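Record 1 of the preview.
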Amino acid sequence: MTTYNILITDGLDVRGQSILRAAANVNFRESTPADELINVIADYDALIVRGQTRVTAAVMDAAPRLKVVGRAGVGVDNIDLEAAKKHNITVVNAPSSTTVAVAELTVGLLLTVAREIPRADSAMKQGQWLKKEFEGIELNGKTLGIIGFGRIGTEVGKRASAFGMNVITYDPNVLLHELEHGNAEPVSLQDLCAWSDFISLHLPLNVQTRDLIGPQAISQMRDGVRIISTARGGIIDEAALLEALNSGKVAGAALDVFEQEPPGLTELVSHPRVIATPHIGAQTAEAQSRAAEDIANEVLSALQGKPLRWKVA
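->
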């Protein structure tokens, strides 16, 4: 029987660990930079990461035994997919495991940015009763524009509809007739920007989507729009967003992701009209357990030559 060596960085829920340990030798290295990973990867058949570890071409060059890289979550922008293809390394992820968690956080941020809950809480903790200063807006009757209508975007749309919101969507990666079967009206990006009171982003980061929300898109938005992003940093041009917040064009933003993570105490993070969270979309006990179980089984299937559910490359 073949014995596989599996390296885990960025941590993994105990459920996934137990599945892997039953079938392979498992080692851990927390948050290993790519230049350090190069020195240890040669002995491993599989590598499991989350969002922190960057699996570069150089890492794969140094990994003659590596057969599969597993991403315990959705986004794979930290993995060089072209290099993986070159080295015949399979890349898999766990795309459905965090759907509910991210969708629920998005709705929480919608409510929070509409009612300025963090600022109100902060004022109370400073002994201030600023009731008249925190006049928010209701979700009911407002238009939510969802950019990216895959698993998470669809779930956000369902929840927003329950609040009485009119949901419209644009997705460059989904065919129009497929969008028409969802719970949102498909529109062009320009129309979505022009009609939305709230805009929520649910796209992967790639060449097509980088800086998608930049000066041009923001100029097409209605005055006082509120923007929520639980997708990936880099989809929003952060300098353009900051300028729009300062001018009042954008009334507020709730950001769970940033171009550089952690971003530090930047002008954008500290802006009074920005609600910032540290990429916690998938951080629920349930989502982490599902992601660990899904990626453990998928990585073992790849090693054992079994059919795969979520092959990315």
